[in-house]
Write a structure and sequence with these properties.
The chain is α+β, with helices and mostly antiparallel strands. The chain is built from three helices and seven strands, in the order E-H-E-H-E-E-E-E-E-H.
Amino acid sequence: MPIVLAHVHAARSADLCRELGIPAVASVRWTVREIHRRLLHRHLTPELAFGNGETLLIRSRLPGYLTGRRLAELDVDGEIRVVEVTRAGRSLVPAHHTPAEPGDLVTFAVAATSLGRLRGFLDKELGT
């Protein structure tokens, strides 16, 4: 699936691109960060971005090795927070003690700079 980004020089153009569903790139620093994120963390596609992309909502199916562990164990203060779980087609805001169950689809609020850490949690194999 192709990835489309628009490089814009005016705020009005950026707003128009967002309305059309096209991610808009404005500054060189933001552009580099966004390209890096899209290439390195391709499977962690944000559902929603806040500010200039510093905080993202990411949904991901939990790997089996996390079954039975408290979802709160995935929280990293100031970096990653579990904010929602879809389980058997129903959504819930997890309590501190809520365990992960097979097939959980979890929504994380994550700092863009912590995507590698989140990917590590989700890609980690048992015993590594």
